Amino acid sequence: MPDANPKAFDLHDFVPFLVARVGSLMALTFTPLLEQSGITMHMWRVVLVLHFNGPLTLVDISRLIGVKTSTLSRLVGRMIDKRLVTRRRSQDDARTVQISLRSEGQALFRKLWPEAAKAQDTVTAPFSAPELDTFKEMLRQIETILMDQLEAERKSRRG
Amino acid sequence: MPDANPKAFDLHDFVPFLVARVGSLMALTFTPLLEQSGITMHMWRVVLVLHFNGPLTLVDISRLIGVKTSTLSRLVGRMIDKRLVTRRRSQDDARTVQISLRSEGQALFRKLWPEAAKAQDTVTAPFSAPELDTFKEMLRQIETILMDQLEAERKSRRG
DNA sequence: ATGGAACAGTTGCATTTGCAATGAAAGACC
DNA sequence: GGTCTTTCATTGCAAATGCAACTGTTCCAT
What we know:
Two copies of one chain form a homodimer. Chain A is mainly alpha-helical and about 160 residues long. Chain A has a two-stranded antiparallel ribbon with strand order 1-2. Chain A starts with 14 loop residues before the first helix and ends with a helix. The first copy, chain A, is about 70% helix and about 5% strand. The longest helix of chain A has 30 residues, at about 130-159. In chain A, a hairpin with a 7-residue loop joins β1 and β2. Chains A and B meet through α1, α2, α5 and α6 of A and α1, α2, α3, α5 and α6 of B. Chain A binds a DNA duplex (30 and 30 nucleotides) through α4.
C-alpha cells in the first residue's frame, strides 16, 4: 500500500469518509453475531427501532434506518416469516401499516442487546464519560443538520 | 424535563446506531450530486481512495471501503467502461491487480471534491477547530480498534 | 526443492436492493 | 361536496451485492 503521499489532505480528515468507514467496520464485526441468530444487519436495525420506539410504519422505519420502503416492505415480509414482527393496517390512517415486535422479536433483542452493548464498550473503551458524551452529542448535532437539510430539500422539490 | 419514557437507554445513546445513521444520512444527501455525474456512492469512494492512496489492489480497496472483492471486481469493470480507472496485473505479485485512476477519474475527483468539502463544512459548521479535531481523532481511534479486532479474528480463525 | 496452505481475483447463482409505476387513502383548496 | 395533490405501501423489473466454487500465484514448512 503506497503511503508516501505528499498531499496535505488525507481521507482520514474527511468526516463523511471516516464515518462511513467506521460504520462499515462496526457492521463487519457485529454481523457474525447476527448470523448466528439467523438475521441480517437490516433486520437487527428494524428490531432496534421497534424496541426503542414501539410500533412504526414503513416510512418511519425507512427514515430511521435509511432503507427504501420498497426494500423494507419485503424485508418486513421476511421478518414476519421468522415470527419476529407483525404487520397490520392502521385504523387511524388506512394508508399505513403498523409494524410491531412480537414476543419472539423482543426475545431476540434481549438475547443480542448485551452483545451489542459489549461491542459498543469495546470501541468506546479509551474515552472518558464526558468525552464520550461530547462525541455522541456531536453526532446527534450532525444528524439534526442532515435531517433539516433533507427536509428543506423535500420542500423545495415540491415548491 | 422529566423523562416520561421508562427506558433508561435511547438509540441515540448507542454509538453503532448513531454512526450508521449519520453515515446513511450523509450518503443520502450527497448521492444526488454523484448521480449528476453518472456515478454511485461506491464508485465515488473508489475514486477517493485511489486519489489519496494511489494505485491499489482489489483487497486494498475492499478493506478501505468495506465492499466485497467479488462486488468490487464487477464495480471496477463498470468504472473501466466509464473510463475512470484502469486495471492491470501487477508484475511483482501476479495474483493481484493494480487499479489506477485515469485522467478522467482525476478530473471527476477535481470536479466533485469541492462539493464534498462543502458538504463536510455544512455538517461540521457548529464546531470549533479543536472540537472537530478531537471528534475526528476519536473516530480514528475507533477505526483502529475495529481494524485490530478484525485482524485478531482473522488470525484466530486460521489458528 | 517441493507439496500443501493461504491468498487474489473472477464468475455462476441466488438474494437483496432500488427505481418506477400502481392502487388506495388522506389532505388541501376552492 | 368535489377535484387535485400528496402520501403510503406494494410489486414488476432491472441492477447490484454476496456467497461459494474455481483458477492461478505466492508463501511456508519440511
